[in-house]
C-alpha cells in the first residue's frame, strides 16, 4: 500500500509539471474569448482525451472563434467546413481527378486533412456527408478511390449545431451522435462579460493575435499521460453504476425513470466517462481521479447517450433531468 501511495505521489508530481501548458493555453485563449470558460475547458478535455466534441448553442456565442483560436494556440493545421444541404462527401474527404498531362488519376485531398476540423452547422448536411465525416472520426482514416490515407494526429472534429433552426436541417442519427465524446450546450454570457465583449469589439486597437504556445507533439505526449492518471476501483464502479442506472433505473430505486428512458448509455459511454474524468483531473493538474471529476463531466458525456421516450418529451423531461436524478441516487464512493 505504501508503495502504491508513493507511485501515485510520483505520478501526481509528473502530471503537475506536464500539465503546465494547460494554463498557457487558457491564458492565450482568454485574449480573444470573453467568459465561456466552461466551453473552453470542455474543448481542452476533448483535445487531451482524443475525443470529438459537439457544441450546441444559438449563433454568436463564439463557438467558431474558440475552435479557431485553439488551433492557432496549438500551432496546428485548421480546416473549416461549412455544412450546407448541397454538400457532397467528396467536398469533405476529397476525390480523384484526371490529370491530362500525366494521363492518370490523381488524388485531390479534401479539407478533412487537418488537425482541427470545424464542422460548422453539421446538422445542415445530408446523411451521406455526415456519414463520411463520422467514419473519418471513428476510423481516423479515409479511402479515396482504392487508396487509404491515415489522418494526421492529433485529429479532432469540433462540430457545431444550431438548436433553434429546424428548417433545412438533418437530425444526426443517434448512432452517429454517439461518436462524439462530449456534447456541450452553451449558454449566454453574463451582463459583465457582454459589456466586455462590446468594448473589445468596438475598440479599434483591439486586434489581438493568438500566438502558438503549444506544439502538436506536446498534445500527443499529454494524451499518453492522461491515460496514466490513477483511477481507483471505487471510481470505476461509480462510473459503471451511473451508466447502468441509465439502462436499468429500477435497480437503483428509480422506477419512475423507467418509462422515460428509451435506451441508456452504451459501453462507449463508460469508456468516455472514465477517459474524460482522467482528462478533467489532468486539466486540474492532478494525477488521480476523484468522484467530483466524474460528476463534473458526466452531463457532457451522457446527455446525448440517453434516449427519451415520447412520454418524457410530452412531460418536457430532458436527459439532463434524468441524469440529475441518477447522480443524486447513485452512491458516491
Automatic annotation (TrEMBL):
The lineage of its organism: Bacteria, Pseudomonadati, Bacteroidota, Chitinophagia, Chitinophagales. It comes from Chitinophaga pinensis. Residues 259-326 form the ChlI/MoxR AAA lid domain. CDD domains: AAA (cd00009). Keywords: ATP-binding, Nucleotide-binding. Belongs to the MoxR family. Pfam families: AAA_3, AAA_lid_2. One of its GO terms (molecular function) is ATP hydrolysis activity. InterPro entries: ATPase_AAA-3, CbbQ/NirQ/NorQ/GpvN, ChlI/MoxR_AAA_lid, P-loop_NTPase. Residues 52-182 form the ATPase AAA-3 domain. SUPFAM superfamilies: P-loop containing nucleoside triphosphate hydrolases. This is MoxR family ATPase.
Amino acid at each position: 500500500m505504501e508503495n502504491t501511495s508513493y507511485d501515485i505521489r510520483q505520478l501526481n508530481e509528473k502530471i503537475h509539471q506536464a500539465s503546465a501548458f494547460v494554463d498557457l493555453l487558457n491564458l492565450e485563449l482568454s485574449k480573444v474569448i470573453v467568459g465561456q470558460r466552461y466551453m473552453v475547458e470542455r474543448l481542452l478535455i476533448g483535445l487531451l482525451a482524443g475525443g470529438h466534441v459537439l457544441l450546441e448553442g444559438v449563433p454568436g456565442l463564439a463557438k467558431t472563434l474558440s475552435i479557431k483560436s485553439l488551433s492557432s494556440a496549438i500551432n496546428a493545421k485548421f480546416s473549416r467546413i461549412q455544412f450546407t444541404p448541397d454538400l457532397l462527401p467528396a467536398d469533405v474527404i476529397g476525390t480523384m481527378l484526371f490529370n491530362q498531362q500525366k494521363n492518370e488519376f490523381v488524388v485531390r485531398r479534401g479539407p478533412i486533412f487537418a488537425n482541427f476540423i470545424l464542422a460548422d452547422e453539421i446538422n445542415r448536411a445530408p446523411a451521406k456527408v455526415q456519414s463520411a465525416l463520422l467514419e473519418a472520426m471513428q476510423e481516423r482514416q479515409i479511402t479515396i478511390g482504392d487508396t487509404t490515407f491515415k489522418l494526421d494526429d492529433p485529429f479532432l472534429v469540433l462540430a457545431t449545431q444550431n438548436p433553434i433552426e429546424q428548417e433545412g436541417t438533418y437530425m444526426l442519427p443517434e448512432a452517429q451522435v454517439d461518436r462524439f465524446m462530449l456534447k456541450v450546450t452553451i449558454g449566454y454570457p453574463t451582463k459583465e462579460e457582454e459589456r466586455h465583449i462590446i468594448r473589445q469589439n468596438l475598440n479599434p486597437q483591439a486586434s489581438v493575435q493568438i500566438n502558438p504556445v503549444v506544439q502538436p507533439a506536446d498534445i500527443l505526449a499529454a494524451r499518453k499521460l492522461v491515460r496514466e492518471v490513477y483511477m481507483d476501483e471505487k471510481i470505476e464502479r461509480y462510473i459503471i453504476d451511473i451508466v447502468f442506472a441509465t439502462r436499468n433505473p429500477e435497480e437503483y430505486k428509480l422506477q419512475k425513470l423507467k418509462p422515460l428512458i428509451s435506451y441508456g448509455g452504451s459501453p462507449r459511454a463508460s469508456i468516455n466517462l472514465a477517459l474524460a474524468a482522467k482528462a478533467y483531473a489532468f486539466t486540474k493538474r492532478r494525477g488521480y481521479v476523484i468522484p467530483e471529476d466524474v460528476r463534473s463531466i458526466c452531463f457532457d458525456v451522457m446527455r446525448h447517450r440517453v434516449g427519451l421516450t415520447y412520454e418524457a418529451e410530452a412531460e418536457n423531461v430532458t436527459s439532463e433531468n434524468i441524469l440529475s436524478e441518477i447522480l443524486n441516487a447513485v452512491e458516491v464512493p
